[in-house]
Amino acid sequence: MEDNQQQPQGQQWGPPQHMHTTGSSRGGKNTKKRLFITAGIVVALLLAAGGAYALLGGKKTDGKKAVNTTQTKQSTTPAAPKADAATPKTYKSIRLNIEFTYRTDWTMRENSDKSEVILTSPQISYQKKDGVATQGVFTLKFRNGIIPDAMKPTIANAVAVKDSEVIAYAAPADQQRKYTNLSFGGNGTNQNFFMVTGSIAFKAGEAFGSNIDTQGAVYIFAGGYGTDPNDALVFDAVPKGSFETDTYAQAKAVIESLKVY
After folding, report:
1. Nearest Cα to Cα of residue 242 among 125, 91, 140
2. CA 92 to CA 171: how far, in whole Å?
3. Residues 217-247 pLDDT 10s
4. Is 187 helix (H, G, I), strand (E, B) or coil?
5. Which has the minimum average pLDDT: 5-9, 123-127, 172-176, 237-241?
6. Cβ atoms 98, 251 nearer than 8 A
7. What is the mean pLDDT of the chain?
8. Where does the pLDDT of residue 82 fall: very low under 50, low under 70, confident under 90, or very high at 90 and above?
9. Which residue has the higher pLDDT, 126 or 61?
10. Is the per-residue pLDDT at 114 higher than 60?
11. Of 42, 236, 45, 203, the residue nearest 125 (C-alpha)
């Protein structure tokens, strides 16, 4: 460190007295002191420079990490679905005189002569009556007209596995009833299908054939697990508790949305 003391006017600095004796010893000590001070300053400067570099470098590194983290999050975020599965769609059939609303992830089609509309759920897992797990769909069928011969024995031989349930239509047409019965056909503890039975209600154990007339033109709104490939209302037999799932609730919501003209 430099000495900042100013020199008095007209006075000259000279070497200290007894330079080679006392002065020499003091000068050595001063020299060592200066060396220590200088070394300390250098070390301090190096440490300060190193700390500043580490600090700046650390900030720069952190900034890179932040960018990389953001990029990683963006790249792993799944894309938004093209359509919400629960978005409602409405279908109206002039021939069947019905209208209903269903979820976008369900599939709707008409049979060849447009006498029947078939609505199927996405693929789901469920258990059959023997406890074997399977993959399949839940199917709803809507008809208006003569009951096909293949359906008649299924309806006539069905037994109510539990009491019928009264439900209300959400927005019935002017000439439509406000309430209807859902009835559950099967055998013992297993259920094969459910269907709308209008004003007819069943107690558990009652046979469908005793109250449902299968002759003439009538509406058929029915459904169950599986595809019913022979159009006979012969769906997979499942434990009756299977008709308490979210998929069944979605099917029931479709029935409740029905408008009959």
Report:
1. 125
2. 14
3. 899 999 999 999 999 999 999 999 999 999 9
4. strand
5. 5-9
6. no
7. 78
8. low
9. 126
10. yes
11. 236
Q: How far apart are CA 128 and CA 14, in angstroms?
A: 115
Rounded distance, CA 75 to CA 212, Å? Answer: 59
Task: Tell me if 174 sits within 8 A of 147, measured CB to CB.
Answer: no
Q: Are 105 and 250 in contact (CB under 8 A)?
A: no
- Strand, helix or coil at 217? strand
d(CA 206, CA 82) in angstroms, rounded, equals: 47
Length of the chain: 261
Query: If we measure between CA atoms, which residue out of 198, 185, 201, 166 comes closest to residue 234?
Result: 185
Diameter of the chain measured on Cα atoms? 141
**Residue found by looking up tokens 């007894």 in the block:** 18
Predicted pLDDT of residue 188: 81
> Does the pLDDT of residue 163 top 70, yes or no?
yes
Q: What is the pLDDT of residue 109?
A: 96
Q: What is d(CA 234, CA 195) in angstroms, rounded to the nearest whole number?
A: 12
pTM summary value: 0.68
Q: What is the token pair recorded at 28?
A: 């050595």
Residues contacting residue 131 through CB under 8 Å, at least 6 positions apart: none
**Cβ contact 208:155 at 8 Å:** yes
**DSSP structure class, residue 207:** B
- Token pair of 13 as six digits: 């600095």
* Dihedral sign for Cα atoms in the order 119, 123, 126, 127: positive
CA-to-CA separations, 33 to 4, 21, 37, 54, 121, in angstroms, rounded:
17, 19, 6, 31, 91
Q: Which of 104, 92, 100, 121 is nearest to 249 (CA)?
A: 121
User: CA-based angle 238:84:172, to the nearest 5?
Assistant: 70
